[in-house]
# Entry
Amino acid sequence: MNITTYLETYQKTLHQTFVNAKNTNNVSHAYLLVGEEGTPLKEVAVHLAKTLLCDGNAPLACDNCLTCHRVDSGNYADFFIYDGSESSIKKEDVAEIEKTFSTTSVEAKGVLIYIVHLVERMTIEATNALLKFLEEPGKNIFAFLTTHNENIVLPTIKSRSQIVRLNLIKRAELLALLENSELTNIDKELLSSFYNLPLLIEEQSADENYIKLKDVLLDLLDEMATNLKNSYITASKLIPTLRDRYLYRRLFAYFSLIFKDVVNYRYKQPLLFPALSAQIEKLSAQIKDPLPLIIKTYEVNDKINANVTIDLLIDELFINLIKGSNHDS
# Structure
């Protein structure tokens, strides 16, 4: 399933709105794409942006022409992407856009486009600089902004952007779309928790960081299911090997979902991770009350974002985990 098919099938309002705007030469100078974690915000933003540059005549970007290929390979001079999922976006980044776009375009099409993925990851200075840039958009300059949390985006940025919202594909439907995939069930279940598009799930399954994260998660889960107290030692050795705060956040997010599955198991509700049912059953026998642990994983994730030392966060979660076990002294 490519992005055009995804938009036609699952984001019909967005698809029709943008196609109509393009066909009537009424494209907004700034779009704010809003979606829960897992929605392919960046991919959609890139696809809509390519549509304004594409050499073809299809309603949306064809993905086959020279211009589309150049955008995809990062070789289109008038196209910039700043990705807040990789690092915070600073004032200097916005200044680079302003400086570059203050001159005439390099490319013959004369259209300049920038994408800011996850505007909530911008510094205050960068946000203020972006706001000033949005207030007086130049001719043929287009912005595609994205966010997982509309509530923390400045009202002044929202008022200067056309807001479009992406809907999540229901998890059961997403897994059904993956039914004929060669992926293992555990990969389907783990990745569908954070990627809401079969194409992205297929791609991420081969990503080295995901494979490393999955190995750490499953090793830890096996240890937790076997001996909860000893899992602290294993966690102290394994988790720091990830060496990336993004992976730490994802790992603790998986913990919260696993603890939710302990609740699901006890109340005979469908599991999020049926492929891990054996481990979840064993965990259920050891954990007195999983609810405080779910809350604790959220707290730990907030502290990861605040750059608290990872060793302290491992201590915080696993000490609480051991205290809440049925085998504490």
